[in-house]
Amino acid sequence: MKANRSIGCSVTECKYHAKGEMLCSLDQIKVAKNVTSTATSESDTECATFEKE
Ligand code: SF4
Known about the structure:
The chain is mostly beta strands. It has strands at residues 4-8, 23-24, 31-33, 45-47. The protein has a two-stranded antiparallel sheet. Strands 3-4 form a two-stranded antiparallel sheet. The structure holds iron/sulfur cluster. Iron/sulfur cluster (SF4) is lined by residues 7, 9, 11, 14, 16-17, 24, 26, 29, 47, 49-50. Iron/sulfur cluster is lined by residues 7, 9, 11, 14, 16-17, 24, 26, 29, 47, 49-50.
């Protein structure tokens, strides 16, 4: 699987994860807020492209 060295990711449960390397295999992803209010910390954001393997 192709690994995109510009997108680091540790979510190995995602079907787009490059496995073997802590990278995403997609050319691009979408990052979104997981709160409706203003994001104030890392935990308020997430990869919206995630799909369970
Ligand atoms: S789509 Fe998102 S969660 Fe999935 S491997 Fe890529 S960066 Fe990680």
